[in-house]
Design goal:
The strands form 5 sheets. Strands 1, 5, 8, 10, 11, 13, 14, 20, 21 and 22 form a 10-stranded mixed beta sheet that branches. Residues 1-95 and 100-153 have low confidence and may be disordered. With 567 residues, the chain is α+β, with helices and mostly antiparallel strands. It is globular and about 70 Å long. The protein contains 12 helices and 25 strands.
């Protein structure tokens, strides 16, 4: 079998606990009486990664349009929308996804016969299959073009091998403060999820620091957002399917020495950060999309499904139905806020495995911003002044500072917090990423000493920012190289089929903040082929120039970090 060189591909607080601490000296006379009140908000973004393993054969060639290997003479698949505008359409129903038991032998192969619908999954005997986890649109009447071309085929052989079943999370009692039983049930469920082994987040701070410098670098004028938690989960799953030096490089990036320890930590990270109680939301959803023509190691698939709460699907990556099912899954997991940006994501016909991971966040401010106080203001962006709406508020809280920055922390009800970090005049947000004080503050704001509890008059722009990041070059800089090299890659824990390499890694994120709170989603896809009393002082915090925001989970792990150059 001829081995082609694979080209690099890439697609597109709670309020802080009021603690008794000595007040360090203020770095400069920042405390003044203020005219405006301010509000800061950060929304998380969506992290997209799609993994596709390509198998190479002697008649493979690289197309000039996409750089993706395709069979000689074939046209690479175009976005679904392209066909809709050029081919007459017809309406028919997408076949339902069939539940199937995993074969008792050691692999899942193309010869597997799908049993009748309703057969329970043997992938994870402790999980109960829930039809509600399937995107509703997957079984509804849809309109799309007939498959008259070679780009897509029509196939009904879609199988769901495992369904993710999330932990029970009772609804937040809300205004029912007198309902002690309901509150205790909710509180107990939350404590169980948060009660993880000591040290389960070991190594995450270093991974956060190193990866943030890589993926937020070069943000001079545009907005950029990065989800460290989403990438952490995708890389952990990638370590499961790789072996040899390919696995070791991924473990090194994640600051782990042992795959068993990483597996346990990743499972704890998932549980500790899960929240979906009707008021607040922080969910990590993962799914595996396999090519039904290839063979896979059953044990590896079971570990991925069981330890990472993954749903597992098998189908023809060249079929419209299978691609539609993936897009509907993504839309559902991200609450639809990334739908427009992800509508053109399709699987390659040569795909062996795609890993999709999303992080979705929704938080309501502890103290909302009044819409009556929101008004126009000038934001000094790198490309010139621009007018936007600023949220204003006067509130008691901790004000933080360092040699080159100041910051406020905005708490979410039972769901962590958001830091708004404003560089001093003449300092750029990117420069702050190399500041040890800033990194110390971002990784553990509760232990940062330079703070004062006082009255803060905040003015923070309302924003809706998004970014689409190619993770390929960044992963290589961090040390993940063998996975991209067909002569060095080792994915034998997943499949014995030769020629498997990591070909594509993307992350799409969108964060929205307004007077009520924050919403954020990310999608990562990787493709493999083959309080105390205020002091009486006041401070102005006017975020009218580029700033950094960070969204931190209820457990203190960073979910999203971004630079806003243009709100």
């Amino acid at each position: 079998m001829k081995k082609e060189k694979l080209y690099d591909l890439l697609g597109d607080i709670d309020e802080d606990l009021i603690k008794a601490a000595e007040e360090p000296p203020v770095k400069k006379p920042k405390f003044t009486w203020v005219k405006y009140a301010a509000a800061a908000a950060a929304c998380i973004a969506i992290f997209i990664g799609a993994g596709v393993l390509y198998r190479y054969s002697d008649d493979m060639s690289i197309t000039s349009d996409t750089g993706m290997p395709t069979a000689s003479g074939e046209t690479p698949p175009l976005p679904i929308e392209t066909y809709a505008s050029s081919v007459s359409t017809e309406s028919f129903t997408i076949p339902p996804v069939t539940e199937v038991s995993v074969p008792e032998n050691n692999d899942i192969s193309a010869e597997t016969t799908a049993p009748s619908a309703g057969t329970s999954s043997a992938m994870n005997t402790e999980k109960t299959v829930s039809d509600a986890l399937l995107p509703e649109k997957a079984e509804t009447e849809v309109t799309y073009p007939p498959f008259a071309t070679d780009n897509y085929t029509s196939s009904s052989n879609m199988i769901r091998l495992a369904s993710a079943e999330y932990p029970e999370m009772p609804q937040y009692p809300g205004g029912n403060e007198n309902d002690d039983a309901a509150y205790k049930k909710w509180s107990d469920a939350k404590k169980i999820l948060r009660d993880q082994p000591a040290g389960y987040d070991e190594g995450f701070d270093e991974f956060f620091k190193n990866s943030t410098l890589i993926f937020l670098k070069g943000t001079e004028t545009n907005n950029r957002i990065y989800s460290p938690l989403s990438l952490y989960m995708v890389l952990s799953m990638s370590a499961e399917i790789s072996g040899g030096n390919t696995r070791q490089q991924i473990l090194d990036v994640l600051e782990h020495d042992d795959i068993d320890v990483l597996r346990s930590h990743a499972h704890s990270v998932w549980q500790a950060n899960y929240m979906d109680d009707g008021m607040a939301k922080c969910t990590i959803a993962t799914s595996l999309w396999m090519n039904d023509k290839l063979s896979y190691n059953k044990d590896t698939i079971e570990r991925l499904a069981g330890n990472y709460y993954s749903s597992v699907y098998s189908g023809d990556p060249a079929s419209y139905e299978y691609n539609k099912l993936l897009q509907d899954w993504v839309t559902e997991q991200t609450g639809g806020i990334l739908k427009d940006k992800l509508s053109k994501n399709t699987m390659s016909p040569e795909m062996a495995l795609t890993i999709a991971s999303s992080v979705s966040f929704k938080g309501k401010w502890n103290e909302e911003f009044s819409k009556d106080l929101t008004g126009p203001g000038t934001f000094h962006s790198p490309e010139g002044d621009t007018e936007c709406d600023f949220m204003n508020k006067e509130a008691f809280g901790y004000y933080y500072w360092g040699d080159n920055f100041s910051s406020v922390s905005l708490g979410f009800e039972e769901n962590g917090k958001m830091l708004v970090i404003l560089p001093d005049e003449g300092i750029t947000p990117e420069q702050l990423l190399y500041d040890e004080q800033v990194m110390s503050y971002m990784t553990d704001p509760d232990k940062y000493n330079y703070n004062k509890y006082l009255t803060i008059n905040m003015s923070i722009p309302r924003f809706d920012v998004s970014s689409n990041t190619d993770l390929t070059s960044g992963l290589k800089k961090m040390g993940v190289t063998d996975a991209f090299d067909i002569s060095e890659s080792d994915f034998t824990p997943l499949t014995e089929d030769p020629g498997a390499v990591l070909s594509k890694a993307k992350q799409n994120i969108r964060v929205i903040i307004d007077e009520d709170g924050c919403k954020a989603s990310s999608m990562t896809m990787i493709a493999y082929v083959g309080a105390g009393e205020p002091s009486g002082d006041y401070v102005d915090f006017i975020a009218d120039r580029p700033f950094i925001f960070e969204i931190i989970s209820d457990t203190g792990l960073p979910l999203f970090i971004g630079i806003v150059n243009k709100p």
